[in-house]
């Protein structure tokens, strides 16, 4: 059972609808905005977020094809996706008085948070990006004009997506089939159950199928934002990038370059892989909470010592 009292709604944007989940705290003096990784419905992260959020309000959004957000007939691109999130957030922020806000996101959602921040520097007080999906310049150049089938030769995430099983007879079978395999290696059971519950849906025959079609997930992984590195250079919002020591080499390369290009970006290397917040939800949440409560000083708190591998501060 969730500790959050979510109100779910489909929020209209200029070109589609976005599924939003709002938890409004009566005592909140700030709000957290969280965006998910590609292929993971946003409520997959509840076990992690339950350990992060205290008195804050919380807003979650699902990208196209995730959760209850409509998939559409094609991937509209990273920048247009960020614009959708921004439009939806603006609507909800005005309606519920969600201010000030902290931007948090994993993988695709981390990159979305950064794109939104660069477009509106006053949107978030600061960002906490969890292994954000940032491709290095050489990879972006390689992706330009390349078909998704060919991209798969270079990006393991695309290969895995196109080979992925998409349906199961029940949530229990889905859980058993995914546990400890591929992307889900090392995940805590609570996070995997949330994935199965919210990232799959029941079919007319009573089976479970992925909400996000593989073609859409692969299209996301096989592309990149326009002018990503210009965005990184221009980013004014204080930003913490927390990344797993066993993450993808391409992401690691990007994080180190981003730090060199922008003094507003601070790196914290932690235990685990790309989904470290699912492998170590309590430790990851404690670190994020330390940043929320104490900023940079909180990172060096002794309670985070065993989880942090390296910190640039």
From TrEMBL:
Keywords of the record, alphabetical order, are: Hydrolase
Q: Key word Hydrolase present in the record?
A: yes
Q: What's a single GO MF annotation on this record?
A: hydrolase activity
- State one Pfam family annotation: Abhydrolase_6
Question: Which domain of life, per UniProt?
Answer: Bacteria
GO cellular component labels = membrane
AB hydrolase-1 domain span: 34-286
Annotated coiled-coil positions are none
InterPro entries per the record?
A: AB_hydrolase_1, AB_hydrolase_fold, AB_hydrolase_sf
Please report the name of this protein according to its UniProt entry: Alpha/beta hydrolase
Please tell me the species this chain comes from: Marinomonas piezotolerans
